Amino acid sequence: MSDALSPELEALAGELALGLLEGDERADAMRRCLSDRAFAAAVAQWRERFEPLHEAFEESPAIDLWPAIQRRLTAPEDNRLRSALSRWRAGAVVSGLVAASLAAFIVLRPMPAPVRVVAPTEQGAIAQLGDEGAAALLAAQYDPAGGVLRIRAVRMPASALAPELWIIPDDGVPRSLGLVAGGGVSEVVVAPETRKLLRDGATLAVTLEPRDGAPHRAPSSAPIAAGKISTI
Amino acid sequence: MQVLSFVGTGQNTLYLLDRLRDMGREGSQVMDRTTASVRRERLVYDLARAAEGDQGGLHDVYRATSAKLFGVCLRICQDREAAEDVLQQVYIKVWDRAGRFDAKRGSPITWLCAIARNTALDWCRANHIQHLPESAAAAVADSAPLAWEAIASAQESARIVACLDALDERPRRAIHAAFFDGLTYLQLSQAMAVPLGTLKSWVRRGLLQLKGCLGHE
Description:
The structure holds two protein chains of two kinds.
Chain A: H1 7-18, H2 23-35, H3 37-50, H4 66-74, H5 77-91, H6 94-103, E1 125-129, E2 137-143, E3 148-155, E4 162-168, E5 175-179, E6 184-189, H7 192-195, E7 203-209, E8 225-228, E9 230-231
Antiparallel strand pairs in A: 1-2, 1-9, 2-3, 3-6, 4-5, 4-7, 7-8
Helix pairs in contact in A: 1-3, 2-3
Chain B: H1 2-23, H2 25-51, H3 55-77, H4 80-97, H5 108-126, H6 133-141, H7 149-152, H8 155-165, H9 169-181, H10 185-191, H11 196-215
Helix pairs in contact in B: 1-2, 2-3, 3-4, 3-5, 4-5, 6-9, 8-11, 9-11
């Protein structure tokens, strides 16, 4: 648990949860969330600690925005995202958009279940992401000859966002392998320069991300499922 | 026996009412708590309706909470038009995520406020919003500008308030302004006119002290 964290990391988790960090510091802390389960748990714990404070915000009546909200609810999903972003984009420079994709970081989901390796069936590398009790459960199988990763989504939480697959090698920096389907089997052709990362001990993780702009440079949220690759 | 126990109950009720009347402020807090729990149940129910795809459920959530959530957005965005945009975004998120709300794990209003706060912070980051010097200065000048009494009555909430109050003034102000105004380290160091390194060491020490304080249940 988070008790095992050093005071530095414990404070960093609090800083991230409060929103004190910016730029690279923030991106680094968010990456750590993906690669370090204890750290991600500490961030979630900090959010819980601060949660009661939310009630102290003062009320302030807004003009009636319900008609506008209702229009967005019934608009197709793509239009919805676009209309939500259009006004922001107008004033934002390109780096602002990158920041936006990093910014939606919220740990509201339960932590991913402990890693378990699936019994070998065929040649190649294989990983199970999530476990029986988790909201998300995926199975991954990698064919090194063709560089093809097959992902079977056994169970995924309902969401307007799309599952994005990440490989996290020893350096702890997630690289996107692109979006995968929320159900059935997806085949991901792994780019030649990324193939060497898919090996024993590396972590495969899935986060929920907006479809726009995928594959993303960095995840914007905590993983809903993660598992370690095991070569058979 | 039946009659006796009935009388007993009646007396207790009368006694309770008298006590409530006598106690004035304390009595109204008891009533507030009752209203609050009814409101909470209603909100949980409406969120569940929204999770099932009922727009009426979301509309009821909007009616009950939009003033509160707009307060969150406005305080952080510091711009009415932006806050209105963000508020729309917030309810779309609530619609998408209503199924993930777990009433056993937390209160619906804090869950909603957390979505609003994060969405507003995202907006600030995406737009490189730097707080105007005046509002940032105000944010760090006063560390109790809020509806503190709104949470002071609930037991588990009072704990974090008490622990924050126990911090030294400077880390307390910094943590307040970070939480309620969305100020980052950089903005805080400008507003408080202290070097970044000094500020960070105050805040880190404050956070660890806070964790220790909250850990002693």
